[in-house]
Amino acid sequence: MRLVLVLVSLAIFAGLCTALAQQVWRWLDKPVTEVRVLGDARHLNKAELAQRLAAGLNAPLLQLDLSRVQERLLEEPWVRGAKVRRDWPPAIEVRIDEEVPVARWGDKGLLNHEGDIFWPELKPEYAALPRLNGPASDTGRVMAQFHDLNRMFQSAGLNLSGLSLEARGAWTLELDNGMRVVVGRERVTERLARFIQVYRQGLAEHAAQIEQVDIRYTNGVAVKWRPKPDTDEKAG
């Protein structure tokens, strides 16, 4: 008889626990009323991001698939990393790490400090960033070369604004005065040292009229001048 009473008591206790757990679950598992986006953001609009996330929530708090929410965040071009957690009252708290652009990549992309390409909507403010180009697998190489060559040119009072690497390995660079320098793929440092010497000795005073300098020659360089304005059109 005592065993029966113990078993009945345990059954009642288990039933009460289950009922209580169900009540607690229903109390916690309510529709999300707020999405909070935390973290420093210069390029992202955190309020708009929160609204887009909230519009896509299709389950109450405890039934939400947080990994799916994180995936949606990482689809945003400016989001480099994101952590998502549940909070109370029914809310989703998101902490983001924003991309930091250090250069443009081609006509439509940007590069972060690790050489990863991302594709946000480009704005005029990014025009001041150096413009790099080349095979997507060589972003790190192009960034390193730009850093080294820019340091070399700055010692001569010049600044690079762009650098391109062709698939066959040839380099072309652009100066911030609009001049393009065709370097090729061999003896890059030697050729550029010769260019800097020639630039100082005579090209500098004509820089505004020079479109391109080809330094792929053993001795000397080839200069392409900018087209002169049509004086007749100018007068009209």
Concise overview:
The chain is α/β, with parallel strands linked by helices and 236 residues long. The chain contains six helices and twelve strands.
Indicate the percent of residues in helices.
25-40%
CATH 4th-level superfamily of the largest domain: Cell division protein FtsQ/DivIB
Q: What is the makeup of the main sheet?
A: 9 strands, mixed
User: Strand order across the biggest sheet?
Assistant: 6-5-4-7-8-9-10-11-12
Number of domains: 2
| Distance separating the two termini | 116 Å
**What structural category characterises the helix and strand content?**
alpha/beta
| CATH architectural category of the largest domain | 3-Layer(aba) Sandwich
- Poorly predicted spans: 232-236
Count of distinct strands:
12
H/E series:
HEHHEEEEEEHEEEHEEH
The gross shape turns out to be: elongated
Please tell me about this protein's structure:
The chain is 35% helix and 26% strand. The relative contact order is 0.07. The chain folds into two domains: 34-98, Ubiquitin-like (UB roll); 114-231, Rossmann fold, CATH 3.40.50.11690. The strands form two sheets. A nine-stranded mixed β-sheet has the order 6-5-4-7-8-9-10-11-12, covered by helices on one side. It has 236 residues and is of the alpha/beta class. The protein contains six helices and twelve strands.
